[in-house]
Amino acid sequence: MAGARLALSGITRTYTRGDVRVPVLHGVDLEIAAGERVSIMGRSGSGKSTLLNIIGCLDAPSGGSYLFGDEDVAGFDDDRLSMLRRTSIGFVFQSFHLLPSLTVVENVGLPMEYAHVSPRERHTRAVELLELVGLGHRHDHRPNELSGGERQRVAIARSLANQPRLLLADEPTGALDSRAQDAILSLFETVHARFGTTMVVVTHDERVAHALGDRVLHMSDGRFAT
Amino acid sequence: MIRWGTEVRRSLGQFRTHPLRTSLALLGMVLGVGSVVGMMSIGEGAQREIVRSIEALGGNVVHIRAKDVPQERLGELVNDSRGLSREDVRALKATLPELGRAAWARFSPVGVSDLPGDTTSVRLVSASPLIFDLHRLDVVQGRALLALDEAAGRRVCVVGADVARAFDGPVLGRRVRIGYAYFEIVGVLGPKPARRDLPLDPGTYNRAVIVPFDTAIETLAPAEPYKEIDVLSIEVDTLERTLWAKRAIGPVLRTLHRGVDDVELVAPEEILQQKRETQSILNIVLISIAAISLVVGGIGVMNIMLANIMERIGEIGLRRAIGASRADIRDQFLVESVIICFSGGVIGVFFGYIVAFLVGLGFGLEVAFAWEATLVAFALSMLVGLAFGLWPALRASSIHPVEALQHE
């Protein structure tokens, strides 16, 4: 599993609120090499989350081109974007987004359901990933029985379920205390060392940005600051 | 593509987290499907009851009744017509060889005495012995009248269930006075259900004293110049053939009676069709009303689905982020609503049958448990699940993943 090379050029994103058009991204250019780790910093409202959503194919840009590997995904429809997220992209969120009704193993296996992996294999792979993130002993717990740091480990395991080429994290340590933060940061190190996944992290925390980024970019007003 | 196993397991897990809400939606479907099934059972029962009541008087028999003619017109009529008579039977059989056995009866005003209880409504029926076959008269004690009784002019009679019940002790062998002669009771009829809505009410036989036709003419009242018999019943092959028989016999009788319209033909098939038609209109009305409650149940399910979706927007966002397509999200919620509706349908079928059974018991209606109704109910509940689940499911699938993820 190798990382994906990303090339964004002239990316714009404009929201329409009623009759008012609100431009959020003004022509962003960004190249990320395969396996590179990039941190994006910026105040809230700077457009960093919007950019992350576009990189993560959750949102389509209003203009510009986006090469994911060799594919121009800027013009992809919803189904092809879903397919790309399913096969190639892993997400880690600030608030974990684990499903409370499912066990830890089921949460980790969830992305594989959409990739039509058989239940048996799903389970095997989920258990392996849980071992990797250091939660091999907590398979059948529910998320609400875990600490914040443990929940984020589960979420990281889930993001790796379909062996993505790109791992995205939006304030991955924002909801954690400093000890748990350190553990999560070193887990990301381990994951990167193991899989060589391309990583993009959005954060406003200087320490996190430097720990998780080979390169740290600053955004304000929908552009990268030079 | 729907992966049913996964979806169904997921939905059941979802129901466990909201037992009350799910039960209420289920209840709506149970009531809806239950009332449809109940109404169908009651309607089907009514249809079968009609068939049975028709068959109680002999389904494959066409009946010819003499019309009541006003006394003052009798004088002019007798020049042309002798009224319904045994002569007609011979002529009809000669003209229409397809006709089967025939039986006839005459209802006389002759008084019957020596009977216990109220005798005013007891009718004297002089009948050819075949009437027992053709009118499906069941003899529960003793025997029916025989051809031999008639040939030998025996003074014997068979009494109806109500008449027999009024006696103390054994009924067979007793002698009753009819006119100026004594008749021995040789048989007792089983009770017949009264159907006043039929042209020939089988209940008439409950208060009847039946004597052999020829004996009656000999000993009680000589044949009158007009209208020798009141009812002539002729057998055909099947119930359906009675329609044909009615059409064929009508013109022949009219010719025999020289154009005088003094008989009335009753084809069971025709009554059956009319009654069925009335009943099926009634059934459609009943089932339509029941269907409204099914729609209400469906709206309940839709309501619950919308509430579920509002509550699980974050989950929808997460599922979209890890690669679920719009169709995946749509199917997930569609499966949930179909499962609620189908489970409600299964319980509703039992509920409907129980209600129908109780209604049947309480009101003395016949109730039929048609397997078609069960199939229809299952199909209908799935359909309701799809129809009323579709809009919420489409709404869920059209939420933008970014907005869904931000929703807390």
Describe, in plain words, how this protein is organized in 3D.
The complex is a heterodimer of chains A (226) and B (408). By secondary structure, chain A is an alpha/beta fold. Helices cover 36% and strands 27% of the residues of chain A. In chain A, the strands form 2 sheets. In chain A, strands 6-7-8-3-9-10 form a 6-stranded mixed sheet, sandwiched between helices. In chain A, strands 2-1-4-5 form a 4-stranded antiparallel sheet, with helices on one face. In chain A, a hairpin with a 2-residue loop joins strand 4 and strand 5 (71-72). In chain A, helix 3 packs across helix 4 (119-132) and helix 4 (119-132) crosses helix 5. The longest helix of chain A has 18 residues, at 178-195. The relative contact order of chain A is 0.21. The model of chain A has no long low-confidence stretch (mean pLDDT 93). Chain B folds into 2 domains: 4-54 and 274-406, no CATH class; 60-267, no CATH class. Chain B is built from 14 helices and 11 strands. The model of chain B has no long low-confidence stretch (mean pLDDT 85). Chain A binds chain B through residues 53, 56, 58-59, 78-79, 82-83, 85-87, 91, 93, 95, 97, 99, 101-102, 110-111, 113-116, 119, 158, 161-162, and chain B through 3, 6, 13-14, 16-17, 314-315, 317-328, 400-402, 405, 408.
Topology at a glance:
The complex is a heterodimer of chains A (226) and B (408).
Chain A: E1 6-17, E2 20-32, E3 37-42, H1 48-55, E4 63-68, E5 71-72, H2 78-88, E6 89-92, H3 104-114, H4 119-132, H5 148-159, E7 166-170, H6 178-195, E8 198-203, H7 206-212, E9 215-220, E10 223-224
Helix pairs in contact in A: 3-4, 3-5, 4-5, 5-6
Chain B: H1 4-17, H2 19-55, E1 61-66, H3 71-77, H4 86-95, E2 102-108, E3 112-113, E4 123-127, H5 131-134, E5 139-142, H6 147-151, E6 156-159, H7 161-165, E7 175-178, E8 181-189, E9 208-212, H8 213-219, E10 231-235, H9 241-256, E11 263-266, H10 268-311, H11 313-321, H12 326-363, H13 371-397, H14 401-406
Parallel strand pairs in B: 4-9, 6-8
Antiparallel strand pairs in B: 1-10, 1-11, 2-4, 2-10, 3-7, 5-8, 6-9, 7-8
Helix pairs in contact in B: 1-12, 2-10, 2-12, 2-13, 4-9, 10-12, 10-13, 12-13
